[in-house]
Specification:
By secondary structure, the protein is of the alpha/beta class. It folds into 2 domains: 346 residues, Na+/H+ antiporter like fold; 300 residues, Rossmann fold (3-Layer(aba) Sandwich). Helices cover 53% and strands 7% of the residues. Strands 1-2-4-3-5-6-7-8 form an 8-stranded mixed β-sheet, sandwiched between helices. Helix 4 packs parallel to helix 13.
């Protein structure tokens, strides 16, 4: 009846949403929830709860699993990428619920009828988990769900609402049952036959195939509880342990692995839209509720088929049952591994980029060129017209920036721009701003993009290239692959790859350890496990990149004094990553800190006749990039003109007069 009612209700709501709106208007959900728990109290039979005392350790484990352990799985669920987000959040809330009020006990009773399941233990866990759960749920949601999605939950108010809506009706129903015991007991006298049980458990074989993501939640709970019971059995006496008794293990496994839908609905109702649309939160949980009944029906049917012969030959089949139990545990372990692998694969897959100009993507507002492979590159021009310019620059922006963050010509006075005749083009690196992503981006491919941009804009045979911070690796690429096109180059606080072979191991290790611990881990992942960069920087278990998070510790004294000069970025806030963080920030990390095609420390002087000069500018108090490695580069590559700024931080380019100093050094050789 429950399955038919749930499916019928969803179908009716889809066909005629007006009825659902009418029910919400007259608070039908609150009234029905109150009634459901009065009925649940009426159906709670406690006669045999005393029989469960013999298996109290198993009951304690079950309660801990239901109320304390399983809510931790909500952290895993929140990593799933699924739209709308309410589907994921709803399943996460569902994992914090107590066990079902009826189906777990019913399945255990079926085991009792045919195979000896401990229904008294199941009933005790059901009763206690629901009563305690109503008190614990608000804190679980606040700790595991609210923090994960960045929402504040009024825990005290939610607790008070659940007590009034759920706990009091449940106790009231139980009191009514005890007061009118005879009438209730008479109504429950139902004759159960073997054929009835088999028809019930054969039903799932004809059911539909449900979404794997929802199915995984119940599989993981089953596998976790199964392995925990097996481990507790081994630790407390083996075959003689109370955890090893089949009837206790079956009851705990079924009850501890199920979650109740009515409590979930009541909780969502009390949250008043804090996590999104209530209907979208509940909908996947309806499917999960049906799935857990169907899957556990299969499981019980499996137990029944294995154990029915033992009713006639119990003594001779003890060894067979042990072998079957071992096989079952192995099967559940395999399911757990498959489930974890499926979850892991899903978690590390980044969402597809929202390409500018595509349906659902950001609009195209910038001027763009079409590259050799069909991608578009967005750019912005500054300074004098390129037709009259004496010197032409290509600026490569840094991490989490875009074409609007050019800090050279844009910060020159109009008089200096006219005097020097400088023109600058700043472009969005692939995946940033309005430039199409390049899934195969490398240092070389970015260099070729720069060369093609220069050719399509008609910048002539030679041009200057300037790279700031993470834009520095593009300058190294230009020095490697297209030195013949350069009139000069400047590296401004260029980001270092600590795994360049040319660095002495002790020096790179020392510099690496100057980074924040969370940045050290982020760089390790980018270098050794690049396919995990997206997951590492979006998961909630460990802190991701401190640079991406703009942790205050990474700014030097000068940086903090210059931060106000970055206020202009509010005008284009969000533009840099509007197509998705993976193809912008995370792709940048994979390219800069991954395995390079060459070692910059092996480069030879591309301008032996001094027809162009290369400059490296660095602040000695830079906390983003260790200055000691830049000093080593300057010593190793003596043809680079090194400028170390005393007291300078990573943002020295925004300091007054720096832009002019950098430009004049490139053009007229001033150091």
């Amino acid at each position: 009846m429950l399955r038919a009612a749930l499916i019928g209700g969803v179908t009716l709501g889809l066909v005629n949403p007006t009825l659902g709106c009418l029910a919400d208007k007259y608070y039908l959900s609150k009234v029905s929830t109150f009634g459901i728990f009065i009925i649940s109290g009426l159906t709670l039979c406690s006669d045999a709860i005393g029989d469960a005392a013999k298996a109290w350790p198993v009951g304690v484990f079950g309660l801990c699993s239901i109320l304390l352990f399983s809510p931790y799985f909500s952290r895993l669920i929140l990593q799933i990428r699924l739209q709308p987000q309410e589907f994921v959040t709803g399943l996460a809330i569902f994992s914090c619920m107590p066990t079902t009020l009826s189906s777990g006990v019913a399945l255990t009773q079926a085991c009792l009828f045919l195979a000896g399941g401990n229904s008294a233990l199941a009933l005790a866990m059901t009763l206690m988990s629901n009563m305690l759960g109503i008190l614990i749920i608000p804190f679980s949601i606040s700790k595991f769900i609210a923090d994960g999605v960045g929402v504040s939950v009024p825990t005290a108010e939610l607790l008070r609402s659940l007590v009034l809506t759920l706990l009091i009706p449940l106790i009231l129903g139980k009191v009514l049952r005890e007061s009118f015991r005879g009438a209730v007991d008479t109504s429950e006298q139902v004759k159960v036959t073997t054929s009835d049980v088999r028809c019930f458990f054969d039903f799932p074989a004809k059911g539909p195939v449900y979404c794997m993501r929802i199915r995984l939640l119940h599989l993981i709970l089953l596998a976790f509880n199964s392995l925990a019971l097996r481990s507790l059995s081994a630790a407390t006496g083996g075959n003689k342990s109370v955890f090893a008794k089949k009837e206790n293990a079956q009851a705990a496994l079924l009850v501890a692995s199920q979650k109740t839908l009515p409590v979930m609905v009541a909780v969502v109702e009390q949250l008043r839209g804090a996590f999104g649309e209530s209907g979208l939160l509940v909908l996947p949980c309806v499917a999960a509720h049906l799935l857990q009944i169907i899957m556990d029906s299969f499981l019980v049917n499996f137990w029944l088929r294995k154990d029915l012969p033992s009713n006639t030959a119990k003594g001779s089949n003890r060894i067979v049952r042990r072998v079957r139990a071992k096989r079952m545990y192995k099967g559940i372990t395999l399911l757990l591994l498959i489930g974890l692998l499926a979850w892991a694969y899903q978690a590390i897959q980044p969402p597809p980029p929202k390409i500018c100009g595509s349906p659902g993507g950001p609009p195209v507002t910038a001027t763009r060129i079409k590259l050799r492979d069909g991608r578009h590159l967005a750019y912005r021009e500054l300074g004098v017209s390129k037709e009259i310019a004496k010197h032409k620059f290509i600026f490569v922006h840094g991490f989490s920036s875009c074409r609007h963050d050019e800090v050279i010509v844009s910060r020159l006075s109009p008089e200096v721009v006219e005097e020097l005749g400088v023109y600058s083009v700043s472009f969005d690196k692939p995946g940033y701003g309005e430039s199409d992503p390049d899934p195969g981006r490398t240092t070389k491919s970015l260099t070729l993009d720069i060369e093609e941009l220069a050719d399509q804009l008609g910048l002539g045979p030679k041009f200057y290239v300037i790279g700031y911070s993470m834009g520095g690796h593009a300058v190294w690429g230009c020095l490697k692959y297209i030195p013949h096109r350069l009139a000069g180059a400047a590296l401004l606080a260029p980001v270092i790859n600590y795994w360049w072979p040319g660095f002495p191991a002790n020096l790179s290790t020392e510099a690496y350890r100057l980074q924040l611990p969370q940045d050290q881990w982020a760089l390790r992942v980018a270098h050794y496990l690049p396919f995990l960069v997206y997951w590492w920087n979006t998961q909630k278990f460990f802190p991701g990149s401190g640079v991406a998070a703009r942790r205050p510790e990474i700014y030097s004294h000068q940086d903090t004094q210059l931060l106000h000069k970055l206020a202009y970025r509010q005008n284009h806030k969000g533009v840099a990553t509007q197509q998705g963080e993976f193809e912008s920030l995370h792709r940048d990390m994979r390219v800069a800190f991954g395995k390079w095609e060459f070692d910059p420390l092996d480069l030879k002087n591309p301008f032996p006749s001094n027809e162009a000069n290369i400059h490296l500018w660095m602040g000695d108090e830079d906390r983003f990039v260790p200055v000691m490695l830049q000093r080593y580069i300057a010593k190793k590559l003596s043809w680079i003109q090194y400028h170390e700024l005393k007291g300078g931080g990573h943002l020295f380019g925004y300091a007054d007069g720096m832009s002019e100093a950098i430009v004049r050094a490139l053009l007229v050789g001033h150091k």
